[in-house]
Structures are given as structure tokens and as C-alpha cells.
Hints:
Elements: E1 14-17, H1 27-36, H2 48-56, E2 67-76, E3 79-88, E4 94-100, H3 111-119, E5 123-127, H4 131-134, H5 140-143, H6 147-154, H7 157-179, E6 188-198, H8 200-209, E7 225-231, H9 242-245, E8 253-260, H10 276-280, E9 286-295, H11 303-306, H12 315-318, E10 349-353, E11 361-364, H13 366-387, H14 392-406, E12 410-414
Helix pairs in contact: 1-3, 2-13, 3-13, 13-14
Amino acid sequence: xCATPKNFGQPLLYMKISGKxxxxxxVTALISAVLAGCSAYSPPKPDEAKVKQFVGQGYLTDDHxxxxxxxxxxxxxxxxxxxxxxxxxxxxxxxLVIYLPALGEPRxxxxxxxxxxxxxxxxxxxxxxxxxxxxxxxxxxxxxxxxASLARERYSxxxxxxxxxxxxGAWLELSRRQARGEVPLEHIDMTRVAIAGYDLGAYTAMVxxxxxxxxxxxxxxxxxxxxxxxxxxxxxxxxTALSARYRAISTPVLSVTSDDDWDTVGLGTAPSIRRAPFxxxxxxxxxxxxxxxxxxxxxxxxxxxxxxxxxxPAESHDSEGLxxxxxxxxxxxxxxxxxxxxxxxxxxxxxxxxHSGSPARASLSPTARAIGMAAIQGVSTAFLDxxxxxxxxxxxxxxxxxxxxxxxxxxxxKR
Length: 415
């Protein structure tokens, strides 16, 4: 079903996903993503029944909304903001999740996460704040193969300051448009907000939460952030010591990583360093979800990962004119060495795959990969419900039942 909501920017696409026959988070998103990707080629598919069975034993809720996604460009003075809004179609007030993509990703990234959260009763606004971030893979440095220099530039304090300034402007523009009664913005509850991001987006989310970055004055943003989700958190040993970098973070934080979460752009980031934010943040409502065997690119929440691909097709970037990653997909380059890791829930791994700069390693089967993504959807939705909606049942599930549900597929810790 196609429609165009009134007044909301200049919509490029409006798509309704009903999913009414499935009560549980993530299944509709994963299955529809797999089917949508089959028109051009037929990769191995997950075992749909096994994924449904796993999800049915996890975090359950009575809320499972039909959703709509709109792409729009807002203009405010000399500034433009390219945004994607995924929101339930029901007339109500929904808490807001602001989703920030990684380097080289467009506003449409993270579809698996955004869809699950929206189906759970959240409005999800996604934007890539800086054009230089979105178009990183088509930059002169990327064309020259100097990905390490490119990454250092984009992760700098100067770039972060510019990024945060854009986010502040986008928030003010959202507030103005909502005050004018634009559809569907009037259904966003702007008093209950979470920030989520992947890789560079996770880094930005952590700085908003209070991470200290040398050369950057801690931002005072107008948004009332109740919780932060950091997918594949960025951390390194440069600048401020880890013990000082995270000590001011009092906001509830869920960090999501894996034992195969290797750096993709030459910064030398190993899976172990991605756990540093959790280890060095002060105790109190801090969670670390470590999945087994999911690659860095799978943690992006793209559609190809659900259908059995390790790397997302280049058109997921090029479709919005935002460039192409090295190696064709965002996860084209892996660096470092590491030991073996177990399978996810006993599902078989498929043949080893050679990544640039790293030894060959076995990849998860499409079913195990889809189950791993569903696990992240379930845990992250429960985290949002616990700390944004302040749902006591979600809190109890997160603290008591999530570990049992994950089993060997992953590990969850709390401080």
C-alpha cells in the first residue's frame, strides 16, 4: 500500500508494512528483507521456522504495530537535513529513537534495527549528519586507498563538533515542524528520546551521552536523552585515557558487539577494544551484549546480512548518491588476528571467507546469522522499553531472562 503523508517534507518513498500476523519483534523485518532481496539473485535463505521459534521464546509484548517509512529533505535557512522517519501508523504518541549510521552509510541504513523498534512502538528518525561522512567511500582519500587517514579525519574532534551542530539543528527543525502540526510528526513524543548508532554513529551517540573527546567541549544538546544504544562501539587508545574518557556517562547505555567485530577501515580496532566503553563507564544501568560470530557488517543491521550475505550490496549506499565502500560493501576490509569462536546456537557455519588483512574464518549460516540479528532486535527493544518507556516487565526480562534466551548465541552483562 502506497500513500503520501501530508506536509512531511518532500517524500521520496512511503511504504506500509503490516506484519499483523506476527506478534514478535524482528521476524517481519528479517523475512521481508530476505524476500525483497531475492528479485536480483537468490542467496542462501535462513530457515524461517527456526527463526520464528527462537523469537517466540524471547522478549514478548502486546505491542506490534504496522509501520510506515518516509524519506524527506527538510530545509531551514541555508541548512538541509536528509531524514528517514519510520513510525507506527496508529494514531498515538510514540517515543523517539534517533538513529545515526556509520561512515559511508546513508539515512536508510540500519533497517533491521529501525524496523524492529518502530514495530515495538517507537518513532525512529534516521539521518547522516554530514555529507562528508555519507560520501566517505567516494572521497579522494578513499579512491587513493588511504582508508586509515580517512577514518582518522572523520573520527576527529573537529568532525564530531560539526556533526553535533547538525544534530542540534535537526532537532530544532523537528521541533518547529511538530509545533506546526506536520503529519506524521505530531505523533512523536519528544519528551522521551533515545540515541542509537552504528560504528561512527555509535561514537557520536556515546559523545552525546558524555564521552570525553580531547579537543571537544562536551555538547549541551536540547534533546532529553533517556538511553543510548551503541552498535559496534568505537574506541581506541589515542587521546584521553580510557579511565577518563567514559567516567562522566550516567545515561543508561546498551553496547552491542561480537567476538568477530573487526575494524573495517584500517584503524586496527579489535573486538576486545569495543568492550572498553562498557568496562570503563561508571556502574549503573550499563549493558554489554556480545554476540557470537556476527561480523562487523552484520551489526549494521542491513538487509543482505539477514539473507545470508556477509557484505551489503554497493547499491545500498549508491541508491542515495552517498558513495561506495572499499571492497564493494561497508564491511569490505577487516584487520587484525583473533582466535576461533563458537557457533551461534549450534547452527552450522558455512565455508571460510577471506577478508582483506585478516585470516580466513568460517562464517555463520544464514539461519544462525538471522537468529543473531533477531537476538539483537529483542534485547535492544527490551532495553528501550525498560529505560525509555520505563516498563518494569521489560526491565525484569532484560535482567533475568535475556541471558537464558541467548544461550550460546551471545552473552549479556550488566554493571
